[in-house]
Amino acid sequence: MPQPTTPTTPITIEAPTAAAMHQLGIRIAAQAHGGDVILLSGPLGAGKTTLAQGIGTGLNVNEPVVSPTFTIARELHGQFSDGTPATLIHVDAYRLGGNAYAPGEDSVDRLLDELESIGLDEELENPGDNTIILMEWGEQMAAALADQRLDIHIDRPISTPNRHDTTGELTSDGTRTVSLIPVGDSWRQRINQLTRPDSSEE
Known about the structure:
Layout: E1 11-15, H1 18-31, E2 37-41, H2 48-58, E3 73-79, E4 85-92, H3 107-117, H4 121-125, E5 131-136, E6 149-155, E7 176-183, H5 185-188
Parallel strand pairs: 2-5, 2-6, 4-5
Antiparallel strand pairs: 1-7, 3-4, 6-7
Helix pairs in contact: 1-2
């Protein structure tokens, strides 16, 4: 299991629209490379899938990037900006790590067992040279994952105007606050590029 690594102070970016969130995903993809693990968290309706779609766009993925809730993991194929083939493994960890532990089993052991059962344990601990792991609801699994990763948390304040439509459901309106937390040296060296609007064009 990877040894714990102290996270860096978060960089905060505001995304006032869904288009801005999508563009941020493109910028993240421009800085990503094979072997990266990206953990994406936030409440329902915060924009996680929109950000994931932007990452898919930035990696030239032609397949739809949708929430993998019913399959837990989806493997998508695209290209890095230099034309190198890229594989994006999009994981939804919401249903992983439930409360039905065996006697003496802790949460990390349970998560690793579940990852192994779906064939993702080795991918997460040692992604391939052309593979990026993007995990939604991944914050609960940080202790069981690689010590080099980018943690992304999306927050949508309760006071945001137009946060709900007439049915009470979350809408696409309202500013999101995105916290980018590099864990390990690899992302620390790239994180500042994400605050530059033109970073996807470099």
